Amino acid sequence: MKTTQHKIPTARPSGQRPSGAVVKPVGARPVIGGASSDRVIEFRGVTKLYDGGDIGLDHATFGVEQGEFVFLVGHTGSGKSTIMRLLIKEVQASSGVVNVAGHDLAEIKRKKVPYYRRNIGVVWQDFKLLPNRTVYNNVAYALLVTGHSRKQIREKVPDILRLTGLSTKLHNYPDQLSGGEQQRVSIARAFVNHPPLLLCDEPTGNLDPETSIGIMQLLYRINKTGTTVVVATHDHAMVDKMRRRVIELSAGRIIRDEAAGLYSRDESTREFAVRMRGARLGQPEDS
Amino acid sequence: MRFTFFFREALRSLKRNAMPSFAAMVTVLVTILVLGVFIPIVQATTGAADEIRGKLLIDVYLRTDAKPADVARVRTLLADKTPNVKSVQFVSKEAAYAREKARFPDQYELLGKTNPLPDTFRVTPINPDKISEIRNSLLPVAGGGTVAVDPAIEEVKNRRDQTAKILEATNFIKITMALLASLLALASVLLIANTIRLSLFARRREIEVMKLVGATDSFIRWPFIIEAIIVGGLGALMAISLLAVGKVAILDPFAETFALIAAPETLNFGLLIAILLAAAIGVSAAGSTLSLRRFLRV
Ligand SMILES: Nc1ncnc2c1ncn2[C@@H]1O[C@H](COP(=O)(O)OP(=O)(O)OP(=O)(O)O)[C@@H](O)[C@H]1O
Ligand SMILES: [Mg+2]
C-alpha cells in the first residue's frame, strides 16, 4: 500500500498474528524520521480556536509513548474530542505543534491525509456503523474503500471478528446487535488493519457498566499487542479501576497528567477483567 | 474490482434516488433531443448560407467609352489598391454581348449590331461579410453623393440587398438554437447536480466512514460521478433512439422529395451520435462536479 510515508511505527509482541510481518519487541525505537523520541503522540503548546471563537484546546503540551494506554478525562466541552480531531487531522491546530510518530501534522498535505489516517483506528461513542450492511460487510467496507483486495479482506475480516468476539454475528445487521456488540464491530473495523494507534472517543458512553468492562477488556487486549490506545471518557469509576495514565482537561487546559505508576504492564487480560469486576471471580472470559 | 465497487455503489444510489434521477434523466433526454434535431438543421442552413456567401460578387461596370488604357488602369486599381479583394475577373463588352445574346436571342435580335453592354470587372471578396468595404473604397462618399475614384468607373453593384436577408435569417436560427440549447444544458446540469446532492446526503454516513478509515477523495467521488454518467447516458441513449426512429420514419421517406434534407452538408448520423453522447457525458460530469465541489469538502 501507499502508506509508507506517514507510517506510525508499531511494536508487536511475538506470535501475535500469522501475518509474517517482521516482529519487533515492545518498545523498539521507531525507524522513521529520526524523531527525538519514540513518542507516538506529541503535543507542544497546541491551541485550537474554533471558528465561532470557542476554545477547543488551550496551550496543551503532552506526549504519549509507544504502547501506552492513556485516558483523557474532563467535563463536557473540555477538549477531549478536539484532541482526537486534531490527531486525525480533521481540524488543524491554531498554534503549536502536533506530532504523530515524528511527523508534524501541519506538514502533511491534504492529498496525503487519507494515507495518514490508515495508520490510525478511530472508535466513536455512536459507533458510526452502516445500518444497511452486515457486521462482516461493515468491517470489510473499511478495507474495501482503502484499496484492499478481496483476498486480503477474506483473510483479515474473520480474524478480527474472532478477536473481538463477533464470530457468531457475522451476518447480523447493526440493529440486530446490542450496544456492546455494535461497539465491538466498530472496534473491529478500527483495528482490522492493526494500526499502531487506536483513538476511542467515549467508547463506553452509551453502554452499561458490565458491557463497558467487556469493551475496556478488549481495548486492553489490543493495547497488549503493542498498539498505543488513547481513550476519552466521562467514566471516572472505570478510569480509577483501570489504573492507567490519566490526562485531565478543563476548558481546553491540561490540569492533571498522572503517569500512574500503579499498574504493572504484565497483567494478563484475564487478571485485568477480574480486577475490573471487583471480587467477582470465576467470570468466564470471552475469547 | 474497484470499478465493480464504484458501479454497485452508483446503482445503489440510483435506486434510492429514483425520482430525482428520473427527472434529471428526462431533462437530459429533452436537451439531447433538441440538440439532435437542431444540429442538422443548423448544419444544413449554414451550408446553404455559405454557398450564397461564396457567390457574393461585386460587379464594376466601366463607362461604355472606356479605352483599353482605362481598362488596364482600373484592373491595377482593383487588384493592387483595393482592400478585401480576392480575385478580379474581366468580362469584355464583346464577351458579355455574346453571352447575353445567347441567353436572350429575341431581344438582341432587335438591337442589331449595337452593343449596349459595358466592360465589366467581377470582383470576388476575401471576406464576403465585409463586401461593402470594396464598394466604399471604389465609391468614396464626397459631398452629397458618391464619386468614383476612377473616372472610367460608371457603376459599382453588389447583390447584397437580396442576400443579406438570407444571411440574417440563418444567423437568427443559429442564435435561437444556441440560446435554447444552452438553457436546456444548464437545466440538465442543475438537475444532475441536484440528483448528486441528494445521493451525497443519502450516503453521508458512508462518506463519513470512508473519510475516517482513510479512503482517498477520488475513491469517494467516483461512485457519484458514475451515477451522474449513468443518468446522463440513459437520457442520451433514449434521445438517440427517438432520433433514430424519427430519421427512419419521417426524414428518410421525404429525403427523396426534398433536396435540402438530402443535401450533402447534412451531418452523418454516426458523428451526430458521438457528439450527442459527448454532450450528455459533459453535462453529467459538470453536474456532478458542481455538487461534489460544494458538498464534499473531504
Ligand atoms: N465544530 C466546532 N465548532 C465550534 N466549536 C466547537 C466545535 N467542536 C467543539 N467546539 C467547542 O470546543 C470546546 C471543546 O469541545 P470538545 O468537543 O473537544 O469537548 P469534549 O471534551 O469532547 O466534550 P464532550 O465530553 O461533551 O464530548 C467546546 O467548548 C465546544 O463547544
Ligand atoms: Mg467529545
For this entry, give a set of tags.
heterodimer, A: 287 residues, alpha/beta, Rossmann fold, 6-stranded mixed sheet, 28% helix, disordered C terminus, B: 298 residues, alpha+beta, Alpha-Beta Plaits, 4-stranded antiparallel sheet, 6 strands, binds adenosine-5'-triphosphate, binds magnesium ion
What does this structure look like?
The complex is a heterodimer of chains A (287) and B (298). Chain A has a domain of 190 residues: Rossmann fold (3-Layer(aba) Sandwich). Chain A has 8 helices and 10 strands. Chain A is α/β, with parallel strands linked by helices and 287 residues long. In chain A, α3 packs across α4, α3 packs parallel to α5 and α5 runs parallel beside α6. Chain A is 28% helix and 22% strand. Chain B is of the alpha+beta class. Chain B folds into 2 domains: 180 residues, no CATH class; 101 residues, Alpha-Beta Plaits (2-Layer Sandwich), CATH 3.30.70. Helix content of chain B is 71%, strand content 9%. In chain B, strands 2-3-1-6 form a 4-stranded antiparallel sheet. A two-stranded antiparallel sheet of chain B has the order 4-5. In chain B, a hairpin with a 2-residue loop joins β4 and β5. In chain B, α1 crosses α9, α2 crosses α9 and α2 packs across α10. Chains A and B meet through α2 and α3 of A and α8 and α9 of B. The structure holds adenosine-5'-triphosphate and magnesium ion. Adenosine-5'-triphosphate binds next to α1 of chain A.
* CATH homolog superfamily of one domain in chain A: P-loop containing nucleotide triphosphate hydrolases
Low-confidence stretches of chain B: 260-265
Query: Radius of gyration of chain A, Cα only, in angstroms?
Result: 18 Å
Overall CATH class of one domain in chain A? Alpha Beta
CATH fold-level topology of one domain in chain A: Rossmann fold
Order of helices and strands of chain B: HHEHEHHEHEEEHHHH
Number of helices of chain B: 10
The string of secondary-structure elements of chain A, in order, is EEEHEEHEHHHEHEHEEH
Oligomer: heterodimer
Q: Indicate the low-confidence ranges of chain A by residue numbers.
A: 11-36, 279-287
Number of domain units of chain B: 2
Overall, the morphology of chain A is globular
What percent of residues of chain A adopt helix (DSSP H or I)? 25-40%
Instruction: Determine the structural class of chain B based on helices, strands and strand pairing.
Output: alpha+beta
Bound molecules: adenosine-5'-triphosphate, magnesium ion
**Principal-axes shape call of chain B:** elongated
Biggest beta-sheet profile of chain A: 6 strands, mixed
Rg result of chain B: 31 Å
